Target: Pyridoxamine 5'-phosphate oxidase N-terminal domain-containing protein
Amino acid sequence: MTTTPRFDPRVLLAESRLGVLATIKSDGRPQLSPVMPAYDPEAGVIRVSTREGLAKTANLRRDPRAALEVTAPDGRSWATAEGVATLTGPGADPHGPEVEALVEYYRAAAGEHPDWDEYRSTMVSDRRVLLTITVERVYGADIG
Model:
C-alpha cells in the first residue's frame, strides 16, 4: 500500500519565488502587489525587497499586518502566510546594515550576484527597503 505525501503549505511557500503580497490601504481595502518572496522556515520569516515610497511600503508603515499568497506552477495548490511586517531601510551607506540585510535577502532568494558593488550601489540609489514578515499563520490547500 502506498501513501500519498501529506500537503504542507510551508514547503510550497519555501519553494516559491513569485507571490502576491496583500497590505491594507488607509480606507481598509486590500492592496495587492506581485513580489519575489524568500521564506526562511527556521527563522519563521518571509523577506521581500521593495522600495521606499511605494503603496505597499506606505501601507505597512501605517499598518504592519500583511499576507502573502503563493500558487504552485500548475495552479493546483496554494499557500498563504499571515503576519506582521517590519521594514529595514532605506540605507544611505552601501556597506551599512540596511544594505547588508538586502544582500542576505538576495542570496536567499537568488544566490550570488555577479557584481556585489553594483548591487549595493543600486540598493542605495533605488532606496530599497527590506520587508520582513514574521509569520504567525500558514495555511493552504492541494486540490490535485
